[in-house]
Amino acid sequence: MPLRIGFTGDVMLGRLVDDRQQRRSIDAVWGTVRERLRELDGLVINLECCLTTRDREWQRTYRPFHFRADPDWAIPALEHASVDACALANNHVLDYEEVALEDTIEALDEAGIVHTGAGQTIDEALEPAVWTIGNGTSGIDVAMVSFTDNTPEYAAAENSPGTAWIEIDVDEPETRRCAREALERARQAKPDLLIASLHWGPNMVTEPPDAFRQFGKWLIEDGVDVVHGHSAHVFHGIEVHEGRPIVYDAGDFVDDYRVDPELRNDRSFLFVLAVASDGRLTELRLHPTEIDGCSVTEASPAAARWSRDRMRGLSAQFGTEFERDGESLVLSLEDDEA
């Protein structure tokens, strides 16, 4: 049986989510999706906040929003959902200054949740997350790198903490150098599956620009098995390149954001990649979700139909076609192997 690895869009546990979680059960944030998450063999998220109780907000540049969650409930909640790995290269991990990034890393380390994309230096930010899913002969080794083009003032440097910030441009030498350095480190672990998680682009855009498509394909050609994109708050279409999926944007998984009535940033999917024991990708399954009351839930029939139709429409331009299985969409990857 293939192993199943879940990928989500933004998991923002701050503000109203954090407030509500002080007065409800630890796993309430996962709503009706909790059991589906726990049934997976692995789970990767973009953690769109810092885990801290610090109250000094970033003031060096203008930041309209600051997201933090109390690690006393957030870490157990991540554990209840069986989260394996967090992408930290994003535009909120330093919202409460460098000390909050330190708190976040310390909390994740103590919980045994691997992470990548941010650190005390750029060297640490480029270090991959490495872990194993499954066990025995059926287990596979996974490595993940994470980058962002958001909020350059949060970028790590040789002697200062921050994120693995890059410009999304395959023609930019520094971008190629930085990405290849991280990928080479990841390959040293000899993973069966190599993931690139990218927090790229502005909010509320509906399609990836050409530069993102070029960069995503370049990553696949350089050995990445799945591109896990996020940042737009709305999901984008999926492209398959050399038999490998590029999820340009996974949308939002849980947050407290205002909902756009047309773009419906409260609707997305849990993206589940099936991987054989030899590392061969077999399918990508999309389970419709929606956010309700600062929790993620299984999408209603109407919301699921809307998301399926929209995903099909957005992906058609890339030549991607899905089958339907119940409420979910299924993308076969075996037929697309190069």
From TrEMBL:
All residue ranges annotated as the Capsule synthesis protein CapA domain in the record: 4-257
Q: Which InterPro entries match?
A: Capsule_synth_CapA (IPR019079), CW_Biosynth-Accessory (IPR052169), Metallo-depent_PP-like (IPR029052)
Q: Which family does it belong to?
A: Belongs to the CapA family.
Q: By what name is this protein known?
A: CapA family protein
A Pfam family in this protein? PGA_cap
Q: Where are the transmembrane segments?
A: none
- PANTHER family, A to Z: POLYGLUTAMINE SYNTHESIS ACCESSORY PROTEIN RV0574C-RELATED
